Predict the structure.
Amino acid sequence: MDIAFLNLEDTAQADAYRALTREVFGLDLSAWLTGGFWRGGPRILGLMEGGRLAASLTIADMTLVLRGRARPAAQIGTVQVAPAFRGRGLGTKLLARAMDLCPPDVFLFARAPLAAFYGRLGFQGAVQSVMRAPLPPPAGKPVPITAPQLYGKLDPARCVESGVLDVRREGSFYGANLVLGRRHDLYWLPAGCAAVAREEGGELHVFDLLAQSPVPWETVGAQLAALGGREAVFHFTPDRWLSEYAVADLWRGERLFTRGGFLRGLPEFCYPALGRV
C-alpha cells in the first residue's frame, strides 16, 4: 500500500483518477481535468494497492475567517474507494494520512449516515444555516446560457467574485458542476455577471455568482427576481455581495462536519474567507 499525491499532468495518473471517479460517482471528469481549473487548486491524495488506484480524496487548502481572525484550514472532498477494495479500511487509512498533511482546522460535507465513519477521525457534525434576503422588485431579465457560452463571456482565471470558491485560484465549485453537465440553471445577467439559480416553491435558490468585477447585490437581486420567488436563499455566505441577509432555519441535505478549533456553526464559521461577517 502506497499513499502519495497524484500528478494530474501525468497521463496515466490522470486517467486512473478519472476512471475511479467515474466508477464511484458516475462522473466524467474529462472537461474538468483539462479545463485549467486545477492549476494551483486542490491536491489529490491517492492510495495505490496492487498497482491500482484504490482510493483517493482531495485536499483544498484555504484561509477561513473565524470570529474575524484569518486562519489556515482545509476542505476534504471527493473521498472515494473503488468497490473492489472496500471493506478493508483503506478509506480510513487514507483519511488519517490526509489529517497529517492538513492544518488542524478541517471541514467536509457528507451525508448524515457517514457521521460515524468521520467521527472516528475526530470530525463532529456542525450546524448549517440558511441565509435569506428579500428580492428587490424585478429589473432586467436573466438569459439562460450554457457552460461553454459562460466561458466565452467570463475567464474563470480572472473572476474576482464568487460565492463558493476563489475562482482566481481554484475555479468555481458550481462551475465544475456546470462543466460536468450536472446543472442547467445557469443565467447571464445584464449586469455582466453569471448566476447559478433556481426557483422552487416561492424561493429563489442562489447557488453561485460569478463576475470579473464587483456587482452590488441590489443589482443582481433585481435581475434574478425575474426568475420568480419572494426571497433569495443563499447556498453560500454572501458577504462579498454586500447583501443584508438573515440566518434562518437549518439546511437539509448534506451535513457539514468539522475537525479542530472550528466553531460549531454558521455564520461564525465563514466559508471561505470573505473579509467580514
Remarks:
- The chain has two domains: 2-128+253-266, 131-249.
- The helical segments are 11-25, 30-34, 90-101, 115-119, 147-153, 173-179, 217-224.
- The longest strand covers residues 52-66.
- Residues 11-25 form the longest helix (15 residues).
